[in-house]
């Protein structure tokens, strides 16, 4: 649905009444049987969530019943710390309970994600004020802090999606220029089509009131598959095998390379590199990198390490290539007589 697949581990932040996550949960459950890879969160407590958004408790209950995870009191600017202390929401079956949900004790402190989503981020201000000129600087700091926080939880190749309006003053936030202080890179923006999410009712902070978003776009930031060697948070793999394991190369391919086998021309020609099945890369027949893709096909940067890895993976069988060359006579340069 949209930019998301059932197999991707998703984290939704600041989801108001949880209706965006409910759309994802229902779609994944109807098409794949569950939504176990979906985690949604709100900065609100159970009391404030149900008071501000009357439908949120029922939405949370349905998400949990379909296999998803709901977390409360999760600050989008400090996600990692919150995951270490915020218990998963559970369905409350007690007959005396006035709410269909309760906060449990089970934590997910070590979970990592392929996509982290924040729709229409804004600071929490009373009376529904959420991004006018007087709060612009504070909202910009919120988005920058969210990018820093979410980058710590992304898998290599993972993406942060920030959806927001483009008309003033929201378009003046310059979201596309953010993230330079983190290890995520801006990849571009796509139009946000709200009709793809039928249950989603975008809400203002601290107010159960919706707003138009026909002008919205989704900004996409990506954590590179291989970080630049100068980045303090990254370690360059010391060997080809470590690189392949980092990129989740299939076991059978790892074993083949361990045994010193190379991909012969007949196997390589017009055949996708096995790594592409894991959403890692796509290579040209010449053994050079054509383009480097993430899990959903979004373009990522091509690095020197990737070129080296591609060349080592797609080495021609020298003897086979030589025999192939000898078996073909060179084309004649003379014009044939009529």
Write structural notes for this entry.
With about 350 residues, the protein is of the alpha/beta class. It is about 25% helix and about 15% strand. It is built from ten helices and twelve strands. The protein has helices at about 20-30, 45-50, 55-65, 80-85, 135-150, 240-245, 250-260, 265-270, 305-315, 320-325; strands at about 10-15, 40, 70, 90, 100-105, 115-120, 155-165, 185-190, 215-220, 280-285, 290-295, 300. The protein has a seven-stranded mixed β-sheet with strand order 3-2-1-6-7-9-8, with helices on both faces. The protein has a three-stranded antiparallel β-sheet with strand order 10-11-12, covered by helices on one side. Strands 4-5 form a two-stranded antiparallel sheet. β11 (about 290-295) and β12 (about 300) form a beta hairpin. α1 (about 20-30) packs parallel to α3 (about 55-65). The chain starts with 9 loop residues before the first strand and ends in a 12-residue tail after the last helix. The model is unreliable at about 225-235, about 260-310 and about 310-338 (pLDDT under 50).
Topology of helices and strands:
Blueprint lengths: L9 E4 L5 H14 L5 E4 L4 H7 L3 H10 L3 E3 L7 H5 L5 E3 L9 E3 L9 E7 L16 H16 L2 E11 L20 E7 L25 E6 L17 H7 L4 H8 L6 H4 L13 E2 L5 E5 L5 E2 L3 H10 L4 H9 L12
Parallel strand pairs: 1-2, 1-6, 2-3, 6-7
Antiparallel strand pairs: 4-5, 7-9, 8-9, 10-11, 11-12
Helix pairs in contact: 1-3
Q: Give the number of helices.
A: 10
Largest sheet: 7 strands, mixed
Task: Tell me, rounded to a whole number, the average pLDDT.
Answer: 75
Tell me the span between the first and last alpha carbons: 62 Å
Widest beta sheet: strand line-up: 3-2-1-6-7-9-8
- The best one-word shape is globular
**Percentage of residues in helical conformation:** 25-40%
* β-strand number: 12
| N-to-C order of helices and strands | EHEHHEHEEEHEEEHHHEEEHH
What portion of residues belong to β-strands? Answer: 15-25%
Strand-pairing-aware structural class = alpha/beta
List low-pLDDT spans.
Answer: 227-237, 261-308, 310-338
Estimated radius of gyration: 24 Å
